[in-house]
Amino acid sequence: MTIPERAARHCWHAAINPLHATIYFSPDLGKEFAALGVTERPAVNLASRSAAMGAVGPGTVTATFYNYRHDFVARHLPAVWGTITPEQALEARLRAADSTLRRLLGEEAIASPGLAEAADLALRAAEGCTRHARPLYAAHADLPVPEEPHLRLWHATTLLREHRGDGHLAALLLAGLDPLEALVSHTATGRGMTPKWIKAIRGWEQSDLDAAADRLRERGLLDADGELTEEGAAVRERLEADTDRLDAAPYEHLGAEGLARLADLGGQFVVRAVTAGAFPADAFGKA
User: Fold this and answer.
1) How many CB atoms lie within 10 A of CB 122?
2) Average pLDDT over residues 107-114
3) Cβ 167 vs Cβ 247: under 8 Å
4) Residue range of the domain that includes 101
C-alpha cells in the first residue's frame, strides 16, 4: 500500500523515536540499575540497550550502535555482565519504562483508550518489520510483548526504532559517513545530539569531533562555521531518503490511514512527555 511521501519519517521523528528515547534520559533507569549494582551511567546505557542480544562484548555493540567510541564501550562491556545478567537488565529497563511513562504522561493518559489504540497501531506496524540484516531489531523482536498498554506501546516503539536504525546504518555506509562524521553532520542539521552529550554518552573527545569536522570540510560537506553546505545538506537528505526506503515495510503494512492516526496519537503523547521534562534542554541542537 502506498503511503504519502515522508509520512513514515514524520511519524518516526514525531511519535515513535522520542517516546522510546525517554528511557535513556530518565533517572528511573539509573535507579533500577543502581539497585542491581551498576552505577556508572555509560554502563547502564550500554547494558540496557544491548541486553536483548545477550551478554555480548564490545565488538558487537560497537558494530550495532555504530557511533560509539570502541574503547569507551570496551571499558564497560563485557565487564558489566559480571554484575548483572542480560535478563536482569531487560527487567530493570522495563520497570524503568513503566515508571518513566507513568511520570511523564500521567495516569489519565496511561489509562486512556487513545494510548491503547496507539499501542495496537504501532504493534501492527511492527508486524511488517523484517529480521534479516537487522541485528538490534531482531534481538528485540524475540522479546515478549508486555501486557499493559503503555508498555506495549513502548515495546512497539522500540521495535520500530531499532528497525529503522539498523537500516540507517546501511545508508550511512552507502553515504560514506564514518561514525563521527555521521554524528557531526547530524548535529549540523540542528536535529542531532549536541557535542556535550555526544562526548558524555558516546565517549568521544572534542579533538575527535574537530577531526571529523575537518574531514567533512575537505569533502565540501561542512563550511568554515560548521554549517552544512548545499552538498552537505543534499547528502543528509539522500541519507534520510535511503533510510525511508529501507524502513518502508512496516508503515506500508500499517497503511496510510493507520499511519496518520499513529502519528497523531503518538505525537500527542510525545508532546506531553517533552512538556513534562523528558529530555534535557541542551541535549539536541547545535549548542
Assistant:
1) 28
2) 98
3) yes
4) 7-275
